[in-house]
Amino acid sequence: MVVEVINTGTELLLGEILNTNFQYLSKHLNSMGFDVLYQTTVGDNKNRMQEAVTHAMQRADIVIITGGLGPTRGDITKDTVTEICGLECYLDLDTWGRIDAFFAKKGSCPPPNNDKQAMIPLGAEVLQNDMGTAPGLFISHQDKYLILLPGPPSELTDMCEKQLWPLLRQRFGNLGIILSRTLHLRGIGESLTAEKIDDLVTQQTNPTIAIYARRGEILIRITAKADSSKLAISMLDKAEVVLRERLAAYIYGTDDDSLPSIAGKILSANHQTVAFAESCTGGLASSLITDIPGSSEYLLGSVVTYTNMAKHKLINVQQQTLDEFGAVSRETACEMAVGVRSLMGSDYGVSITGNAGPGESENKPVGLVYIAVATKQAVYCQEHRFPYGRVENKLRIALTAISMLLDKINQENNSEDKI
């Protein structure tokens, strides 16, 4: 069955809040076998909302609308849907009692305008809201189904888990399952990736294969639809084998894996440690490492050496090096990596120094960065140019440093399972 999700709220169109509801809904609906093919976002305008809902009903079997179920004049979702379907509403005493009880728990009485939320279209099934006052609605209209859900993510999620998902399983039975798996690649661009698997993409049926570029890495998403999880997983496994035959040298993880998590796994498995000295990234690389639970096992410490004074006094970068070559230089990066490794007593020392922008520094261009990794045997250094804005540059630089660390860990340990 084809599903369209309509997210309402002018704040979504203005970019004031992040729309996490669609991600949640799409993921769970696909896992239940529903085909989520369309997503629409519309502001709090009745005419535009009518147009969006009417259009959705023409191309989808199920239309799910989030938001606009509050007690104010701006909450127009229910009124819009009942008008389109020609439905009358009645005051549902059970819903009103739940609203009254919700306010009673907080020691207050519901305002008069909250009775709007207890007005239920004739024939609609009520989805109880245990986290707020706006009930959800399941409406069957001709050969379509309209599902109205509250906008706050905590209310929507709780309602779906307790009310909507069981109702959909009961109503529609087993529609099969749609599962996806994502392969994470580094060290290769989107164009070359597409070239290497072009025949697989053009000939795809089920599973399907899609390529995405995201902040310095490439994602390949495999999606399979089958009658059971077991069969879908088998289809994903077979497709992954073929993709790894073409791209094994670049694949470093799957699904929720990330460069920091994989680096942590390898360091932990080898009983090795790392320390960071960061200048232009301001501690972001080590922060990404500490996002991973258990990182205290392998991250010994981090030093933000943002100034030349800090580089010299904290990790022993020679003043002569700074005077002669500058902070943004291969020589400084190497001394930083050696210095932080010595200071922390770690197996690896990683340093980052560069100009993240927006203006030139030491006559060095914006985006020029040096990343170094010091080991017991050697010091490695790479020069990079990052053409993005300051914030984006910082993230990409930090991830590049962790990627370089992965390379040197594998190189130093001569791992059989190279990432």
Into which percent range does the helicity of residues fall? 40-55%
Percent of residues in beta strands? 15-25%
Strand arrangement across the biggest beta sheet:
2-1-3-8-7-6
Secondary-structure-derived class: alpha/beta
User: Which value, in Å, is the CA radius of gyration?
Assistant: 27 Å
What ranges have pLDDT less than 50 throughout 5 or more consecutive residues?
A: 415-419
Oligomeric status: single chain
Number of helices: 15
Largest sheet: 6 strands, mixed
Q: Termini separation (Å)?
A: 40 Å
- How would the global form be characterised? elongated
Mean pLDDT value: 92
Give the total of beta strands. Answer: 17
What does this structure look like?
The protein is of the alpha/beta class. 42% of the residues lie in helices and 25% in strands. The strands form 4 sheets. A 6-stranded mixed β-sheet has the order 2-1-3-8-7-6, sandwiched between helices. A 5-stranded mixed β-sheet has the order 14-13-15-16-17, sandwiched between helices. Helix 11 crosses helix 15 (390-413). It starts with a strand and ends in a 6-residue tail after the last helix. The model is unreliable at 415-419 (pLDDT under 50).
